[in-house]
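Exercise 3.2. Students should predict the tertiary structure of the chain below and write it as structure tokens, then compare their answer with the key that follows.

Predict this chain's 3D structure.
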Amino acid sequence: MIYSKQAAISSTRAIALLACLSITLAFSQTDGESQLLKSYGIKIGISSASQDWSYNPTSSIIANSVRRNGLDIGIYAEWFNVPYFSVISEGHFIQKGSRVSKYEHMLVPTSGIYFSGYSPRVNYVSVPILAKVRFSVSTIEPYLLFGPHFNYILSHSGMVASNNIDRFDIGATMGVGVGVLSISQVHFGAEFRYSPSFTNIYSVSSLTVGDGTVSELKVRNSSLEFLVVMSY
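Answer key:
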């Protein structure tokens, strides 16, 4: 799917505007509205991303994908200051992709030779909307996270079939975390999350890669995220 440069710029500006509005609302809460906003802050860490290559087994190549690390930097607001449950809206810059080796079939079906490699990198603006279930234990607060995420591609490199990339990506995020309660206004914590995609980043009926051919190619993202949380 091909998107014009102007459409990409407009979508990016819209996402940035939504993020700015969320931050403004978070900082403008009065005491009477404290039950609505529980906390806000930043999340910084790394993503360990991979891509699932699904294709017709009669294709003349074999693709093996391994993980590629990247940055994950975000802001968030946590809503509904009630016992055990809250909702988190987030805005992230996250790097995804993978390292893909391509193998060409030999005459003997069970063997192959190393042919070439790809290292696709995809930079996203990601907007997760997550339910949070909290369990307070003394000075620590373990919790569970789950909900959808909505991604939009800012830039990419090293991709095959780059003209067929879908800039929008929808999936789920689920994870666990722990917060350390503090008497100060700043609290720290950590999260481990898994974020698979439900949609294909691209899909083509036939693709020539070097001397090999891939038919019915579909590629999806997934990532593990390790984040440090600083909240107010």
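Discussion points: Residues 72 and 104 are 34 Å apart (CA to CA). The first strand starts at residue 37 and ends at 54.
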